[in-house]
Structures are given as C-alpha cells and as structure tokens.
Amino acid sequence: MTQIIRTVADLRALVRGWKAAGDVVGVVPTMGALHEGHLSLARAAKADCARVIVTIFVNPKQFNNPDDLTKYPRTEAADADLLRPLGVDVIFAPSPDEVYPTGFATAVTMAGVAQPLEGALRPGHFDGVATVVAKLFGMTMADRGYFGQKDWQQLQVVKRLVRDLNIPVWVVGCETIREADGLAMSSRNAQLSIAGRAIAPALFVAMTRAAAALRAGDATALATCQTEVLAAGFERVEYIELRDASSLDPAEGLDRPLRLLAAAWLQGVRLIDNIPL
Ligand code: AMP
Asked: Is 150's C-beta closer than 6 angstroms to any atom of ligand 1?
C-alpha cells in the first residue's frame, strides 16, 4: 500500500521502523507532474531497495523565476495513481512550511560543478537544489537516492554534495527516458502547443548529429548544431557545449568522458538535454 505522508515526524517514525528491521531505503526526489522518466527512477529504486519513498515537493528555492514557479504543474492525485501500481511505499509530499518553517536560515552553497551552464544562467538554482536535496536526505534517512541523467549537471551537483558533506547516501544516476521521437521526457513538455511539441525533438536530433561530428573531429559541429536548432523553430539557444562529464569543465581532448549539454527556448518553455559523446 502506498501511504501519503506530509510531515517529517510521521515519515521519520515509519522509516525508523524499516531501518530497525534492516530494510534498505531508497528515495526518489521529484517535483511531481510525474511521467515515465520519474517512474523509471521509482522502478530502479524498487529493484534495489526494500522500501521506496518518492518525494513530491515543488521547491521554491530552486526557482529563480517566480513565473516558472507559479506555472509549474501540480498534479498530486494523478501522480499517486501512477506510483501506486509500482509498489512505492510512501509518497512524501510536504507543504513549503514543513520544509522551510519560520526561522529557516541555512543554505547549501556550491562552487565548482554548480557554477557553469545552468548555474550561471539560473542564479541560485543549484544552491536551492543542494539545500533541498540535503534536507530530503536528512528527512527520509534514505540509503540510496535516485536521480535522472536528464538533469546531468544536477546529478553531478548531488554527487558532489554527498561527498563534500559526508552524507551517507549512495547516489544512483538513471538513463534519460525519451519519447519515441527522441524528445527527453519533461514535465515542461506539457506547456508546448501541438506545433511546439512537433518542433521540440529537433534539439535531440541536432545534438545527436553534433556528437557524431565532434567525434569525427568537426570543429564547426557546435555552431552547426545551434543553427539547426534555430532553423527548426526554437526561439533561442542558451548554450550547446561540450564539457568534461563529471567536473563540467570545458572539454579538452576527446580522451576522457565528455558530455554534450544544451538549453534552448521554445514557445517560452526552457528545454534542456544532454548526451554522452
Ligand atoms: P523533477 O521532477 O523535474 O525535479 O525531476 C525529478 C527527477 O526525475 C530528477 O532526478 C530528474 O533528473 C528525473 N527525470 C526527469 N525527467 C527525466 C527523464 N526524461 N528521464 C530520466 N529521469 C528524469
């Protein structure tokens, strides 16, 4: 049975019992509006852990744009219907006050991997992510945390967080789940019109072509990729960059794991994607 829990006290009481019984506990942090990408994380957690908690919390601290926070879809009843058949034990859906009660004064600030790309374009975003993930790990007392490669830089931030703060959680990065036409699944895709939805896969298509061209030594591949994305109908490309896969430093040479990462705007919706080189 899937329980919906709203307070840290109730969650902790339950998890303490599980731990006393020796159960491994997995957590899947989400902001809700669940799709197959989120469900794949919950399935991975179920495969590894005796107990699984999916958290649903639209974290105000990671939104640098208030309009984006207001527009973010909230579909808790439908989310619960998707999670129940997977055998998720708990949906932890706290209120903002439960997570950030009056007097809350602490923040996790991260340099290094949190600085370029999304960190530069969305000031405060990764500090908000690092703060809430540290809190969710503390609240759930989980042994393992499941995150999507869809948010590649976020995954590196979370890996850095647990190392730097000695948080005893094993971080698992799960593959990006895509629509049949290649578009990475995202709660934001629902904000696109039918015409926008038809244009959106062009980002992944252009990135895939660029990755092949980069491997073949084509120095113009990133510029071509940008041109293709704009020609497909995207309004603006914020970045298309080749980076070291774990540090996210600018790529030097092709002899180490690299990642091609992009962010682009379509119909006022900011889409991100990344692929290995
Ligand atoms: P969000 O609800 O957007 O904060 O995402 C919650 C978790 O789901 C994050 O770890 C995301 O990386 C992951 N996720 C989102 N979309 C996908 C996807 N298409 N494939 C795999 N994981 C995803």
From this structure: yes
Asked if 19 and 156 sit in the same domain, the reply is: yes
Domain that holds residue 53: 3-174
What is the C-alpha to C-alpha distance for residues 29 and 12, in angstroms, rounded to an integer?
16
Q: Are 220 and 232 in contact (CB under 8 A)?
A: no
Instruction: With respect to residue 149, please indicate whether it lies within any of the assigned structural domains.
Output: yes
Ligand 1 atom at minimum distance from 31 CA? 2
pLDDT digits (tens, 9 = 90+) for 168-216: 999 999 999 999 999 999 999 999 999 999 999 999 999 999 999 999 9
Q: Is the CB of 184 under 6 A from ligand 1?
A: yes
User: Tokens 């998890």 identify what position?
Assistant: 15
> Would you tell me how many other CB atoms lie within 10 Å of the CB of residue 67?
9
**Of 18, 38, 52, 153, catalytic:** 38
The answer to whether 204 and 182 have CB atoms below 8 angstroms apart is yes
